[in-house]
């Protein structure tokens, strides 16, 4: 692969563009907003660039996908879940035939509960979709800190090509055949990150938080398996790895929401104060419902949803989780 | 169970004594040092009490095991690995017959690479041994913060009795049949904690650290399986759970050693400056050797040992780990 076009100018898309350009690839970066694209071109080291990244001059930044796409060997879809359907409905026809589409979106579609790769298969069919996910704080990758990512998809050739294109001495890309599991890990972890934030806000300490994360990933894995993923995937980089990064990094949006609620703010006030709704807030209720429908017990997700929508006290959540009957860990560890 | 005697007055043993006494059990706490036992009795809230815990007056503190043991329904062995054989060689004969022995020791015996429960089976035979391990910072349990622990052993009745005795609304005890896996997780994680410390000391960020922990537990699980444990156990509370607590809590001794080396201090100087050698420093070399002998690849352990004993630069370790050939995650995820 020589030319890769990143569709989406958010933090992660921009970081990946910088990483690939630094590797010497020809990189295009699409913004839906012409004015912002121009701004990025003119002032790549301004604070307005997400998180202060510096975008190499070689990156071709444009709001015109027609100009960027023609010679692309692969496209990276880095669109937030809520805009994904709209962007690819409008622009899908521009994609060159049969090139791999790399999906970086972490989430599930509201209402349909569809995974981003399912939406891509629907809107840009006949292209291999490669899902990439892992413990990746965007600005660290943009700054050239070491990181590991997982690439997964049905087309082994496309996965291999993408891994080779993305890997260097800083970024190590692992393969995984279980695209469903890899994708669901990134989407479902956000509810657990909210719970971890509650734990931080209540000042419950490291023991409770580690127990919560460890039991949380078991819960996610249980649901993920019922949705067609493999349990073991959730114990890898795109599962527990991503969950750790999200829950121990002070800047994660979902963890922060939980922390503020744990400290005593009302959920509706926290949500109202944020420019962008944290993914976990949107997914807690539908994930809980999904668990009910599939008969999968999700005690942590249930309690988070009760705090968010039913006014349950965060402190009572911990008690509810600790006082359940004693059980064997092995039953649901994979 | 009504009466439980804790053998060992270190941080974890004392915390467990406080927890059990708070639950209303009759608790004995043995110190090998009569003067220290007296001190603990007289000034249970002095800073000299480990980490400033307050020991309830009801706890019977003594250096005389003969006085403490007779009516005990269970004994908790909370002795550091290096003194375990000596203590039970000298005092094993005092143990009432057939009562459960709960082992809290995390480590493996130098030279023999034996697990603490194996040493107990050898020195106090014919008693069921229940291994307890998990993400447990001692002072948090002493202060009554919530925590989860795993109890494992061959005697299901003894495991059940111990779980019931230890559980309340704060401490939740999970069962697990795989005593070998539970015990090895606590011993082997210390080498990975050293690597996580290197990561912190080098300032490599959250992405690298989460990747290291996720891949580290895969490595531990691989070795643990070769030693008779079940892989999945290492992805539970006593594996990845304990590893997270150790690696994200600023006070962990092993993590701190790694951090100081990562910042540029020489390994021998760091070790010389510490009152007690960090467990991971002692186990890195024998664990590496064990991997060689059993044909189990342990890339992270190897690199840690190279830093500790061969003067390898911490920064080169990361490069060595990142530049290995691309591989599939699934191959060794469970």
Give the SSE string of chain A.
EHEHEHEHEHEHEHEHHHHHHHH
**Oligomeric category:** homodimer
**How many helices of chain A in DSSP terms?**
15
Chain pair forming the biggest interface: A-B, 60 and 61 residues
Strand order of the largest sheet of chain A: 3-2-1-4-5-6-7-8
Architecture overview:
- 2 copies of one chain form a homodimer.
- Chain A is α/β, with parallel strands linked by helices.
- Helix content of chain A is 51%, strand content 11%.
- The first copy, chain A, has an 8-stranded mixed sheet, with helices on both faces.
- In chain A, β1 (3-7), α1 and β2 form a beta-alpha-beta unit.
- In chain A, α8 (179-201) runs parallel beside α11 (253-262), α9 (205-226) runs antiparallel to α10 and α14 (299-310) packs antiparallel against α15.
- Chain A is globular, with a radius of gyration of 20 Å.
- Chain A starts with a strand and ends in a 12-residue tail after the last helix.
- The mean pLDDT of chain A is 92.
- At the A-B interface, β7, β8, α9, α10 and α15 of A face β7, β8, α9, α10 and α15 of B.
Characteristics of this structure?
334 residues; 15 helices; globular; alpha/beta; homodimer
Entry summary:
The structure is a homodimer of 334-residue chains. The first copy, chain A, is α/β, with parallel strands linked by helices and 334 residues long.
